[in-house]
Specification:
3-stranded antiparallel sheet; elongated; 81 residues
Length: 81
């Protein structure tokens, strides 16, 4: 079961006040994260995680482009046969 404890207030990147919370889950007890009030359910605003998400999104976009090229190449090869 997840339990959160509010500890202190900090500034969020969106300009609103983000709250620093402490996780009391069995998997991650005592870890701190910031919660933006704009997200409704409390999305953690941690710069390193956001950078990783962006990097993953960019990698997915790159892989999709490569897949399109490979499918087009395969289709051309199939027509040639």
């Amino acid at each position: 079961m997840s339990h959160l404890s509010e500890t202190r207030v900090t500034d969020c990147y969106c300009g609103r006040i983000a709250i620093l919370k402490t996780s009391w889950t069995n998997d991650n007890p005592g870890s701190h994260f910031r919660v933006c009030p704009n997200t409704g359910r409390g999305r953690a605003i941690i710069p390193d995680l956001l950078r990783k998400l962006k990097a993953h999104d960019e990698e997915i976009a790159s892989l999709k482009k490569r897949l399109c090229v490979m499918v087009a190449y395969w289709a051309m090869k199939k027509k040639a046969l």
